[in-house]
Amino acid sequence: MDITSYTDFSITSATLLTKYAGIWLPQNVAEARQRKISISYTAVALLYGLFVNAIDVYYSWGDPSRCMYAILNTMCISMTIIKLLILNSNRAELLDAFFYAQRHFWHGNYNSEEQPIFSISVKYCTRFMYFAFAAQPATLSGYVITPLIENLGQNKSNRALPFKMWVDWPISDTPYYELMFTFQVICLYLIGVAYVCPEMFLCLFNLHVMGQFRILQYRMSNFWNVKGKEIDEVMYADYCYAALKKCIQHHQLLIEFCDKVEQIYTMSIFTHMVFLSLLMGLDCYEILVADANPSVRLMFIFHVAGSLIHLCVLTYTCHLMMEESTNVTTTAYSGSWSTLPMNKAGRSLRSDLKFVMIRSLKPCCLTAGGFFPVSLETFTALLSSTFSYFTLMREAFMRNDDE
Questions:
Q1: How does pLDDT run across 159-186, given as a tens digit for each residue?
Q2: What is the spatial distance between Cα 11 and Cα 13, in angstroms, rounded to a whole number?
Q3: What radius of gyration, in Å, describes the C-alpha atoms of the chain?
């Protein structure tokens, strides 16, 4: 099987979404033209959303609930713009990591025992893509459902849009209302795709690295099993040492790939963590404290649920990569190295095995701007900081109400 031709649903979908957002390095004239078009309509949607919500913040400054709603939307769009700019500046490195994985990991040259391990990674990636395609529209549906609920029982002159327009145009009249409603929904889902697009390949890379570390552990724990064959101790030690060197090369490939992914995504992850903690704090305030309409509160429930799921999936895939990279130490130590003779190959194998174990004690991980590794502990820590922001905002607004 040609390793450069391997693909599956998750890889194809992530590639299309990345090209859609305009952060893919074009390989020919057609892709360059497509990238310009993609950047154009993505930029129009993002700038339109940023402008509308910034104007809404200005005109609704005296209404805390409405102003908080507009600030939340502005922060979401600002975070999306920053992440896209960061990833766009690293699109050459992203494409390099993609081809690196395609050369070394995404192929069918696995034996009958390793193929199921690789298939598990592919299955996880496919399920992740299905989940992403279902969760994002469900989260954004709150913005569409809210104005529809508010329009029930209202006359045509007071019909609400997903995002309020502070203009003197007759946008409440037919067909201008329907056209503006459709345009805002299209921009909303364009922004939604751009919001999740930067993390698509990140999660796929993490899941495949997890599978590759499991394949490495399988190889390290099974190359000892030739002892039962007709082979003397010297030849057995030479065979095991040669097999260990191949495992070390595989380990070095994985470490190098993790460094590539870290270089691409570290600042994007940091931006995501900082903004998301503030956003979820605003969501909790609007849901639990603010005097908002039930329909608006429903939209915030959709938003905070989507943010939590997004954060959980991101941190969980990073945690799996860290966990499997450290499991190499246990696998290396549990081998039959103690039965090898103390000849040159046996001593070299023991020495190299110690270096593998020492290196594996430092997990391969992704960091948020180099400040802290991203894992499930990050998820719980971010929830704690979100609760702190929520408590701070509640106390501040309660103090203002008392005064």
A1: 778 888 877 777 777 788 888 888 888 8
A2: 6
A3: 26
